[in-house]
Structure formats: structure tokens, C-alpha cells
Design a protein that fits this description.
Helix content: 25-40%
CATH architecture of the largest domain: 2-Layer Sandwich
CATH superfamily of the largest domain: Histidine kinase-like ATPase, C-terminal domain
Strand order of the largest sheet: 5-4-3-6-2-1-7-8
CATH topology of the largest domain: Heat Shock Protein 90
Distance between the termini: 71 Å
CATH class of the largest domain: Alpha Beta
Number of domains: 3
Order of helices and strands: HHEEHEEEEHHHEEEEEEEEHEEEHHHH
Oligomer: single chain
Shape: elongated
Number of helices: 11
Structural class: alpha+beta
Largest sheet: 8 strands, mixed
Number of strands: 17
Strand content: 15-25%
Length: 518
């Protein structure tokens, strides 16, 4: 038997039309196709800053969605061409536009049972309508009287909406969705989008990223230019940051580049990077929710993104070190405040670093030397000095917190002691912390598993460092005590300390200083 050429054909056109319209993951993706058509019209006309309007009417009896533009409009012949040339797009190869498959009009079937494309050109006195029904292989072309447009442009009406669509397509959800999916185009000012529901309306504005804008220049490839708009910020509890991958027409293809296995690790998955990477030649899936791994364009995309990873990682590390340094300074101040209150409660002002057990080790004074704070030029605040024993706050004529500089430093009654301070250990061992008797500083181990567990949240980190200082305080001043005695004394200290540890460090510790460019 000789080889036979068998031509493919669609056995059931109605079913093919229906299945094609179901290629989108959710109703918002289907709605996005009609926004893309309006955006493409402005792009082809060379117009920027124009408005795309979305009307939502979710009334159970007469529900409808309308997407309008003020573009050039479609003649009757062009509407006829739309119906007769599915899968053959005149936009293919035009990087200004999103459409390339000529099937977006069928997306209405995932929203409702009917779609009316109502359009008028500037040179026509008539408005024409192309009507399509779900699962039908024929469309109806007619002159529109009831919804005739007064000016040029196109309005797409989707009616007979499904119940799930009525629940999902609220004004707030549509705005948030389009803000993510249209981030690059909106930021460039290609067009504006307004969503209206009843008496309420809201414009879709691009998200303003926080943190440091990374100055990474565009890369030129054989397939076109790839642009990087990236911001880096310290990690924050409950804040998710993502880098979107943007394709043709400024439309987001992937919300988070970390969804790609090739970029599922640092620095992309740390919730510290936001922004977008734009490469129009990327091939998109039918539902515009995935990148096609073709042999030509996708490898170039991988190579270019990998080429910037070292610079991005270095920027993230720099920001983390800066944020950690600022946080350490604030937390060190808070540790001193907490210990000052507890030591006053324990009535140990004259010998502030002695516990009930005691027994030598530096006469019980863990922090009696005039230690500098985390910064070498820092001066002690009023709360950083303790009054001598003979002058309690209720008895002395000296204002509370003033240093007794004229007292004899050799006598116990004249001692002026700095409150405890903490600093990262540049030469850590295996322990969580160590006390340096020469400098009087408690150094903490930033590589310890327990520190890594709490460092991302200031409240947890403060609690952890307070415990470390308490440990060093108790151990240093009770060298001859048994393990049980040390444990009891540790509990005594922690019970009092934790009464003064704030549950939230936001108000006490203060805001992070806004980071600049790197």
C-alpha cells in the first residue's frame, strides 16, 4: 500500500467552536481577551492614553458585561472577516498587539451564552452588529438600531451570564486582576482602563513597587529587546512580592517568574523582588497563562535572565545587610530599655548585673564598663545610665536618668553602668551567643539555626535576643551554681523580662528608613 495523504478536517464545527472558547482557566482570563482586542485597536492606530471601559451589570434578570473602546471601529466587511477567519489573525507578527491566534472572540462562551460586537466607523452613519451564540457555527450580521453608537468605536456586549461569572466578576476582583495582567502597559501609559458597576467606578492604576529600583539595563537579542523593571526590598511578614513575565502588548503571561522551574530558587522565590521582565517575542499558550518552550525564543529568554541573576542576588544581599543593621540598632535600644525596667524592679541598681545567687565572676557586674552601643559614635541616652544605690528616683535631687559623673567610680554607690547591648558576632562559634568581658557586649551568632528561624520578624528577634542577654547575665554572675539553680534563676529573669517585651515592635522600634538606589 502506497502512502496516502489524509487531510485533516473538523468533524463537528459547533463543538470545535465551543471547545476553543473554553481554553481559558477562569472567567477573568476570558474577559481579558476582549480587553486585549480593545488595546490592540489603540496600538494599531498608534494612539496612547485612550480609555478602555468595562461595564458590569450583574443583575440576575438582565446581566451583561460590556467592553468599549473609542478606536477606529469596524465596518460590516471587517466584522464579516472576523467571523470567517477564525485562527487566521492579521495581527500575527506585530509585537505592539496581543492577538495572534484569532480566537479571542470565542472566549465569550466561558462567560455567557451570547456575544454582540457593536461597532461604527468615523465614515459611516450606521452601526453594525455581529452576534454569536454559544456552541453555534453561524453568526448574524445586521444593522444595530437599539444600541447605535454616536461616535466611532466598538462595544462588545456579553449577555446571558453564567451564575459563576456573576459571583467572580465583581468590580474589585476585576480591577485587581487587570492591575496584575496589564502592569507593563499601564505603567507605560499605553492606555487606561476604567471599570464601572452601578454607581461605582474605579480606574485600574499600575502598582507602585516599594524598595530599591535595580538599575539593570535592557538586553538586546536576535529576537528583540528584553527589559527589566525590578525592585528589591527587605522581606516582610505577610507581604508577597513577585516578578511578572510580560509578553506582547505589555500583557502579563506569568504572574510570578518563580513558577518556572528554571527560576524557582533564589533570588526569585524570596518574596523580596517585584516588578516585571518584558520580552515580546515569547510565545504564549492559548489561554495566555503559560510560556511555550519553543526552540528559538525561550532559550534566549533563559540565558538573558540568568545573566542578571548575580547582580540581582548581590542587590538583595546588600539590602538584607542594610535592613539587618538598622534592625539590630533598634533592637539593641529596645533590649537596654527592657533590662533597665527589670533591674529597677529587682532593686539591683547599685550592682545591676547580679542575680540572687551571685558568687564572684566580676563582682556580679556584667556591664559595668562604659561600653559603646552598636555605633561607635553613639552617646548614652538618659535611660542608658543607672543612678547609684544611695540615690533612688524617689530620694535623689538629681533628675532621673542623669549620670552621676562626679561620684567616685571605685565605690559601689558611685558606679554608673551602661545597660546591656548586643551585636552580631563576626567570628561565631557553635553557641547561640557569647559574652566578651573586655568589651562588655553580648555577641549573637547569626549563623545559628535559632537565629535564622526568628530573624525575619522583629518581634520574634527581640524576644530571642532578650533571652540571650538573660542567659549570659545569669551564667556569668553565677559560676558556682548547679544546673538546677541556674535554670531557676533563668526563669526568674525571663518572667520579669517578658512582661516588658512588646508584642509588636512596630511602634517602639520604629519604621525602616526608606532605602535608596543601589
Amino acid at each position: 500500500m502506497t502512502a496516502e495523504v489524509v487531510h485533516l478536517r473538523i468533524g463537528n464545527l459547533r463543538k470545535a467552536v465551543l471547545v476553543t472558547g473554553q481554553a481559558y482557566q477562569e472567567p477573568k482570563d476570558a474577559l481579558n481577551e476582549f480587553v486585549s482586542n480593545a488595546a490592540d485597536e489603540y496600538a494599531e492606530a498608534g494612539r496612547t492614553g485612550c480609555t478602555i471601559t468595562i461595564h458590569l451589570r450583574r443583575n440576575a434578570r438582565r446581566s451583561v458585561i460590556a467592553v468599549s473602546d473609542d478606536g477606529r471601529g469596524l465596518t460590516a466587511d471587517r466584522l464579516r472577516h472576523v467571523a470567517r477567519n477564525l485562527f487566521e489573525s492579521a495581527k500575527a507578527g506585530d509585537d505592539r498587539t496581543v492577538g495572534e491566534k484569532a480566537i479571542g472572540v470565542l472566549a465569550f462562551q466561558q462567560l455567557g451564552g451570547r456575544c454582540d460586537i457593536v461597532s461604527r466607523t468615523a465614515t459611516s452613519a450606521e452601526t453594525h452588529r455581529l452576534s454569536l451564540m454559544r456552541g453555534e457555527a453561524d453568526a448574524l450580521l445586521a444593522v444595530e438600531k437599539r444600541r447605535a453608537r454616536a461616535t466611532a468605536g466598538t462595544t462588545v456586549y456579553i449577555s446571558d451570564l453564567d451564575p459563576e461569572v456573576l459571583r467572580v466578576l465583581t468590580l474589585r476582583k476585576v480591577v485587581e486582576y487587570l492591575r496584575l495582567r496589564r502592569v507593563a502597559a499601564l505603567a507605560r501609559g499605553d492606555y487606561e482602563i476604567e471599570v464601572i458597576e452601578g454607581a461605582h467606578s474605579e480606574r485600574v492604576v499600575p502598582h507602585r513597587h516599594e524598595g530599591v529600583h535595580l538599575k539593570i539595563g535592557a538586553r538586546t537579542t536576535l529576537w528583540g529587546r528584553i527589559d527589566f523593571a525590578l525592585w528589591a526590598a527587605p522581606r516582610a511578614a505577610g507581604v508577597r512580592r513577585r516578578v511578572a513575565v510580560v509578553g506582547r502588548g505589555g500583557t502579563t503571561v506569568i504572574d510570578d517568574i518563580a513558577e518556572l522551574e528554571d527560576f524557582s530558587g533564589p533570588p526569585w522565590n524570596l518574596d523580596q523582588l517585584a516588578g516585571s521582565i518584558t520580552f515580546p517575542p515569547l510565545q504564549q499558550s492559548t489561554g495566555r497563562r503559560a510560556i511555550l518552550r519553543d526552540r528559538d525564543v525561550f532559550p534566549v529568554f533563559l540565558e538573558m535572565v540568568r545573566s542578571i541573576e548575580p547582580a540581582v542576588s548581590a542587590a538583595v544581599d546588600h539590602i538584607n545587610r542594610q535592613a539587618e543593621s538598622e534592625s539590630s540598632g533598634r533592637i539593641a535600644d529596645e533590649v537596654r530599655r527592657i533590662f533597665g525596667r527589670v533591674l529597677r524592679e529587682l532593686d539591683e541598681i547599685a550592682n545591676p548585673m547580679r542575680t540572687a545567687l551571685g558568687e564572684t565572676s566580676g563582682d556580679g557586674a556584667l556591664f559595668t564598663q562604659p561600653i559603646d552601643a552598636l555605633r561607635a559614635d553613639a552617646e548614652p541616652s538618659a535611660d542608658d545610665r543607672l543612678p547609684p544605690l544611695s540615690s533612688t528616683p524617689s530620694e535623689t535631687s538629681t533628675p532621673r536618668g542623669d549620670p552621676a559623673d562626679t561620684a567616685d567610680p571605685a565605690s559601689p554607690s558611685g558606679r554608673v553602668a551602661r545597660l546591656p547591648t548586643v551585636a552580631p558576632d563576626e567570628q561565631p562559634g557553635n553557641a547561640r551567643s557569647r559574652f566578651d568581658e573586655q568589651t562588655g557586649i553580648v555577641y549573637y551568632n547569626r549563623d545559628h539555626d535559632d537565629y535564622l528561624l526568628v530573624k525575619g520578624e522583629e518581634a520574634a528577634l527581640l524576644d530571642y535576643l532578650v533571652q540571650l542577654v538573660a542567659k549570659e547575665y545569669v551564667v556569668f554572675n553565677n559560676p558556682r551554681s548547679t544546673g538546677a539553680e541556674l535554670a531557676e534563676e533563668m526563669v526568674r529573669m525571663l518572667v520579669r523580662l517578658r512582661r516588658h517585651v512588646p508584642r509588636s515592635t512596630g511602634a517602639r522600634v520604629g519604621r525602616r528608613r526608606q532605602l535608596g538606589e543601589v
